[in-house]
Amino acid sequence: MSTMSRRGFLQNSALVLGGLSLTSLVGCGGQASGGSEGSAPAAAAGAGAKLVEEGKLTCISNMYFPPFEFMDEKTGEAKGFDIELSNAIAEHMGLTANWTSESNQSFDSLVPTIKAGGKADIAIAGMTITEDRKQEVNLSNPYLDSNQSLVIKKGSGETLKTLDSDEKTIAVQAGTTGADWAKENFPKAASAGNIKGLDDIITAMEGVSTGNFNALVTDLPVASYQINENGFDGLEIEEEIPTGEQYGIAVSKDNPQLLDDINAALEAIKQDGTMAKLQKKWFGQEL
Amino acid sequence: MFDKAKARVEARQEARRVPPALDAEVAAAQAHERDKGLTKHSFEPHEHPCVRIEHLMKTFDGETQVLTDVNLTVWPGEVVCVLGPSGSGKSTMLRCINLLETPTAGHILIEDNEITGHLGTREVNKLRQNLGMVFQSFNLFPHLSAKGNVMIGQTKVLKKSKAEAEAEALKQLEAVGLLDRADFKPAQLSGGQQQRVAIARAVAMHPDVLLFDEPTSALDPELVRGVLDVMRDLAENGGMTMIVVTHEMGFAREVADRVVFMEGGVVVEQGKPEDVFDHPQHARTAEFLGSIK
Amino acid sequence: MDARSRSVACTIVLALAFVCALPVQAWGLTTNKATAKPNEDGGSEVIGGLPTRLTWEGTVEEGEKVSSIHLEIPADGSFAESTTKVTALEGLSRAPVESEVSADKNTLTVSFGEPIGEGLLIRLEIYNMTLPSTGGDVVVSGTYQNQDGEQKLKDSDPPIKTIANTPLQSMVNWLDNQEWVKQWNANQFLGMFLKPQLILTSLSSLFPGWLLCLGIVIASYPFAILLGLVFALMKISRHRLVRAIAIIYINTLRGTPLFLQIYIMFFGLPMMNINIDNNVLGIIVMAINSSAYLAEIFRAGIESIPQGQYEAAASLGMGHLQTMVNIILPQTIRRVIPTVTSDFIMAFKDTSLLSSVGVMELMMFSKNLTSVTGNMTPYVTAAIFYLIVTLPLIKVVSTIEKRIAKSERGGGPRPKAKAKKAEVAVVDGQAVGAEPSLVEALSAPFKAGTSVMGGTASVR
């Protein structure tokens, strides 16, 4: 286990708490001050997309999802595939991507924050495009394909079959498609309240390593990165679960222009080879 | 820091200069000779003093010398009143007798047994059973009733049965006139009543000597009387050996067998009450008594 | 896993292998599974008659080409208002797929523009459909079209377990249709923090978490008190080593966040191969953490007992232990009850931190529910659950404090005498250390009230 992940936990809770309280404040106060008319400092960028801060594309994410987003061990700086993608998108839009210490939130608070508006322009967090999320916010065109994975402790012998039991506990990240998948496919464990929705996937991995949980379900790229590159070599991927899900960027429904701009930028990034370069850098191959 | 350490070394050197405690027979003879004119106590043949203090010295923090050289003998059944201005060391001397303060040097002997030096906790506790103490601030146990206060020493220390201890407690409370307050908590009693309970608590242990540390100083004037009456009764009818540190001159004059005047950590003068009060030998005594009147 | 269950598992595996080996029927499109997303608010059950998402997966076998799939569920279920997401996967990669979906009551037909070839996984996610409202096991059946015409689909196995609508869910649905509820929820604040439907579901689904919180703190507290007392006595011990141990214990625990202690215990112990049930471990962590705070409370309580009490006990010949047990501790207990109760309140609230390591307590349940619903109401409901316990206790603390203040004010010498007494004390106190305990003994005896303090101050 790396020292980074441990420090990460502590920062996580503090930031999440801060983030949540902010969210709720913004949630009630921001609306009153008029999300659509924009008494908030929303400035026109390029072709009229409203931005929280002029000249900047303010982003939020959950920073415990390597290699998509994580904090640099030493500097605490935001790093990862999504971060660099956001930089590229912002560049195409003539903006700079704005990542600060306040960009880190719990995953399940990202959609409500974007919906409430006022704090961030986009959430880019390895977020799967789902119908449920589309009801709350707009999601960009897919930028990456992903699948789920079942991760267990090496040699524990757990399988999809053995895990659906009221005696097994399965960790997930709260609010993710992995959490949904686990509840749906381990109904016995779910009825026993044994699907544990945690704040971040690193806590879940620690828990599986130490035997607190029998398994965890998370996005396949994250699982393989953590196991192969990031020191969780006591774990193994028991099952690659084909779900064919796709990641999208969340934008407020009040901001259709921004959605269009982002889709255009994504298209351009795919065309000019930047996307392939990013994929190669972070996943060792084009996906 | 350095000065303190130096003072402590000096105090220790000073202590080495104190001669060893006298042999019991020699001491008794000497004390007999010295005290016979100083007290109203009637001596028995070959009587030994029950408290013997020789060259007692006490310093706090190795700096403040409170007792310089105290010599005093108290005889069985004798009532000794200790007078003196504040800071004269009278309370400290009293507290040294039951080792609430540890003497820096010198000797205290109870019934010819030396208590100064290295006594074990068990021996100290044993010693204190025989030395009752009444405090200026009563120090009743607030969570126990008057009766409970008188009982607890008997049951926990003397290991008496509950019934036995209760009978004794009621007897002692009756003696101090508080039988009807037996079940009251200290907070429900007046200061005078509290002090009388404290006396009952001490007496119920049937100690050899009763020590009173300014028992009436914390009381309203109108409550002093009751407490003094109880003490007088103990002295006159109980035949109790008592050492009383007090400012009550009237009580000293009427009840004491001997009055001791202390100042600056030494006994300046002692004698029968009428001698000390009416014909003080030392200027300081006269001055002190004058200031009180 | 014990030997028996292992052998059972082996048997099952063997049996499965045997079943698979049987040439029952050669499917051209093998049904892998059909599952439904739990739609119970705050729960994990699939409720019939309410919208859910059905996921069906099938694999196209060797040499086959599938041009359409026709799914069928029992008559009472409905695809009528559903939308379907069709995904084809080759291994883990998405394959291009063109499809047209038509739904009719309890059947759904997906036709592919280009037939799906061998080896591909077809995934149908059917949103906003309903399963039969009667509950029970639901099997998804149907047919498919391959190059040779219409073939039967293998029934989905295992079946989807569903339950009939619960009374709670019915009430929620009733609320859904009320005009005042709609208006209420239309208000941004009320709808976000006090949504009636969610209050209802939260109350029922948070309840077990609340019980666990209470259980953990109630089970941990006696141990905390005992440990706290031990360390309090150690801290005032005369032996330097004993004192040092107590100081290290107390300061380490008080000087680090409970959150950190929880992580160390929950992740550290298993690494040393010590595996303890999560709830029990929660109790242990809470007990250890509280014990440090209680130790300080007890120590302060013990030290607040005036020196005179020790001297009075000593003058009766009581030993150290006897004095502690009979005189000091009984008085300490009365003094510390309010502080200890406050600490209990803190400990109860702090159980929320255990949610971070997966203990299913109140906070965990409300977090889950909030993440599912994207609404703050479960947190507000959790607040209500916490307050149910803490408010009465806060009241108790203030009542006890008032009573103590009153009993300490009443009794003892009257104020006038206290002023005098203080005078004497101060005069005596000036005799540098001669009678050092006098001022202290007088200014803080058991009847120490404001008047004594006032008296002393006025003399000075």
Protein model, in words:
The complex is a heterotrimer of chains A (287), B (293) and C (460). Chain A has 287 residues and is α/β, with parallel strands linked by helices. Chain A has two domains: 11-144 and 246-283, 3-Layer(aba) Sandwich (D-Maltodextrin-Binding Protein, domain 2), CATH 3.40.190; 146-244, D-Maltodextrin-Binding Protein, domain 2. Chain A has eleven helices and 14 strands. In chain A, β4 and β5 (69-71) form a beta hairpin. In chain A, α1 packs parallel to α3, α2 crosses α10 (256-271) and α2 (81-92) runs antiparallel to α11. Chain A is globular. Residues 1-46 of chain A have low confidence and may be disordered. The longest helix of chain B is centred in the last third of the chain and has 17 residues, at 221-237. In chain B, the strands form two sheets. Chain B has a six-stranded mixed β-sheet with strand order 6-7-8-3-9-10, sandwiched between helices. A four-stranded antiparallel β-sheet of chain B has the order 2-1-4-5. Chain C is α+β, with helices and mostly antiparallel strands and 460 residues long. Chain C folds into three domains: 29-165, Domain of unknown function DUF4466 (Immunoglobulin-like, Sandwich), CATH 2.60.40; 198-408, MetI-like (MetI-like fold, Orthogonal Bundle), CATH 1.10.3720; 422-459, no CATH class. In chain C, 56% of the residues lie in helices and 17% in strands. In chain C, the strands form three sheets. In chain C, strands 1-2-8-4-5 form a five-stranded antiparallel β-sheet, with no helix packed on it. Chains in contact: A-C, B-C. At the A-C interface, α1, α3, α6, α7 and β12 of A face β1, β4, β8, α4 and α7 of C.
